[in-house]
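Q: Mind making up any chain with structure tokens?
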Amino acid sequence: MRKATIGDAAIEVIAAEGMRGLTHRAVDRFAGLPSGSTSYYARTRAALLELAISRMVELDDVTLEPPPGRLAEYVAGFVHAAITSGRTRMLARYEFALEATRRPELREAYDRGGLVIRRRCAEVLADRGSAEPERHARVLVAWLDGTIFDALAGTGSLRPPGLAELTEGAREVLAGLGVAG
């Protein structure tokens, strides 16, 4: 339980202050824990980063079970949640993505979470008639990632898309892939 609290607080710190702001003290403060609590569970900065990314992967344990005939709505709902209620975790994820390009020890943990989502997308797309589910999953995930990034950190953040616009975009992408939406 305490590790989850520390992981959640680390995600919050990273989203709010970036990787440079991630310190044991900042996590203690964000979590409302006594000074030194984070150090007890994660002795080094590397251990703290690993704990945070593991918690993110745990929270992202996505069960993709879109209702029949409603894949576009499901995908749009996923994106909408990521840019609204999931905003903090997504901002932290972008910080981790950049950090993982410089720190190979984070790359594996970061990629592990992404591969789970890609595999599940490929399964769903295969069930919906995709002729090339792995390739189509890459295209769909790229649309998801690009749309979320633009809405949170890009120029699109000036006017993030609403659920209706996201649903239409998801329908267009799925139709382009020849997948029943």
